[in-house]
Structures
1.
Amino acid sequence: MANNKELDALLQILSGEQTIIQRTDQKAFTLLSILGAFMVFFIVHFTKMQLDMVIFSLIMIYFPAAMGTIYFLVRVLIPRVRGAKELNDNPDEEQTEDINPTFFAGISQFNNPSEYAKYLKSIANDEKKLYKMFSAQVFSLGLINQRKNNSLRKSMVFFVTALTSELMIIMYLAYLRAYSYLDDRIYQFIYGIIILSVIAITFSRYDVITKIRKSLNI
């Protein structure tokens, strides 16, 4: 029999899993909004571009990456998960699959509200069944979160690829327009900016400053 502490712990886990689902969905919607804004900007200026081999190659990277981002973000919002079947624990009874009354798939199997209320009441009166019901819900939410996070990670790879290729197209177009105005000293500044950017990203990525302070006891 499950005691109150075990049930409270299970409910806390359930609440945490539901919070993770909400945050993951918010991240997916945010990425879709950002991608949509950049795609509108890209499509508006696409007709003004003079295509050459560099721009064409970057476009061939951009569009598949954007489509991959959309696909995996949709998979985040609508994950395909198959939960484990729940069988009753009584060995004397015929092994049948239990209905999970906490999800719409299980709720929709009842013919009317009275039948659903009766089934839910029978579970609520049995602590073991009640604990098993919430355990099944936590397990299902865990599977959903795993699929959502895997799809979100994959979408981030495609998103960064699409965004990087679009920014490279913009930089290349800016270079073509300003080419006649540039001299040799400009290239030195460009190389310096690139090197400083790489150093800044490396320092922030590996938290080098904090590690140096710790080593010097500052």
2.
Amino acid sequence: MSSSVAVAVASTGFDHFGLHEALSRGIRAAGFTEPRPIQHETIPAGLAGRNVLGLAHTGTGKTAAFALPLLQRLLKNRRKGVRALILAPTRELATQIAEEVRTLAKFTSVKAVTIFGGVSMGKQAEALRHGAEIVVGCPGRILDLIQQGVLRLAEVETLVLDEADHMFDMGFLPDIRKILKTLPATRQNLLFSATMPKEVRYLANDLLTDPHVVELNDTAPAATIAHALVEVAEARKRDLLEQVLTGGDCASAIVFTRTKYRAKRLAEQLTKAGHRAVGLQGNMSQAQRDRAMSGFRTRRYDILVATDIAARGIDVSNVSYVINFDVPSTPEAYTHRIGRTGRAEQEGVACTFVTGSDYDWVRATERMIGAPIPRRQVEGFEADPERPEPSKAPRRNSRAGRPAGQPGGQPRANRPRP
């Protein structure tokens, strides 16, 4: 006598999209249960073959939003050749995208290859010869392989440009336009960007016909982030950083500096002081960058010291503090930096060191986020006597106006206090 046992398969909020069963298994393997806002808005349009313009920051769930429709299309009509091209501004972001795509495609035979500079071109060419339906990479190396005849994109059906504003900042738009000339005229295009400088707007206008627009680009920081401007003389920044890092509740931190040299030197100083710190800056080899990021993700290092360019596209969970050792170059860069904490409903702290010469930036940033950033003084550090009053900006639904502490404004132990 035979018997059968029914095995219950957990359902997810993605079921109503009607995705291939293999992708549903991949979604569960990735640990996704409910679509995030950008996924809820983007996936149906992507499945319908629409062009998409997505305005959203890193960490909002963009990768699954474009990867799931892309994979569904590949599975519905299998054939050889590179059928999807995903362009990203940095090697780290390209690697993260490829890893998530492979997780979602785990129960399929779809292959993804990652292409970027700093590693052997020969190995990448060999990976392409073995066959891949998806190529994820940076424009420079991809263009090199196209011009050498190694990468052929005549079969591409879907093009994704991720973090287009960062690609513009890094000077990639000319390379992107050259790549576009090698693609079939008929294809689906998806462009994602946190901001829309005019050059990216021109590219979007050229690229996207009747796009479905998804805008989750509120300039107000996440409500889970507590903010503080800490006034300090330039010569005392290193001492103040030590006090913040040893304050008791800073489990991990990304520290931003203005220059590569400063990031390297500060990481070395922190290491000599007994911290588990590592630098991430442009002069490092790809192997060094990979080791630094892997060490920070696995908590071999608790502190990552980086420049804006080196840190672009980095998506690391459970970062408790973002510390702006130097203020960002623009108000928009402030939201990019601090968006690396306070994710997935977890609380985070954004602490910015300001000197007397930084207050034009402070005023502009407060106008942009629509709220004053609380000033803090740390005992033993002199405040700048010329500091201005907080901007009279209208408040948004954000914790920018709360003290750097627990909900409701209660300061945490050993946190910089008024």
3.
Amino acid sequence: MQWLWFAAAGICGGVLAGMGMGGGTLTIPILVLLLSVDQLTAQFANLIAFLPTGAAALGVHLKNGLVERAPLPWVLLPALAATAATSFFAADSSEVLGKLYGGFLVLIALGGLIGGVAANFSARK
């Protein structure tokens, strides 16, 4: 019966991903907080789900000419550096990784809040 809860978590993540928001933003907390999956396993499952869908989306965008290649080095270099840096934390423990992910979610929420407030003020003018 527990597989139904895992399926529901996957469906919720898929719906969010389909709407343009990262599905892992919801799926990982559901897996960790509600289904008692450790942080590292939850993030691994999210990555495994993302890779084929991301690759398919990239193929479609390349085919339709929607990928700007000039800024790619400016995106890839920091991403590779962040990947290398976070690999040290992943080897440490799920607790550290969980705290880092929680901080990341707080930053996303603050960015959305600040952006919403700024848009509200600019709309009033």
4.
Amino acid sequence: MEKRDYYEVLEVEKTASVEEIKKAYRKKAIQYHPDKNPGDKVAEEKFKEAAEAYDVLSNPDKRARYDQFGHAGMGGAAGNGGPFGGFSGGMSMDDIFSMFGDI
């Protein structure tokens, strides 16, 4: 399966600030969160895709590599299969849920 552009996933411009990326991610994560969409596999995949995009675009080093090389620049981190099917190892589910502590 071809990976979508991370900027498209979060619906932000390539020039987006870290704050704009975070805001866009939070919107997507809330929209597709498994608790809001129980049993919806499509929503679950979109949630994971948004988390992966955020993991890369919120990290200056990963973002620079992604901007230069695309998904190929991510090495084995993106799209490595396993229980999260391409979910990047740099962010745990606890990290994701902790972002919503103030909601």
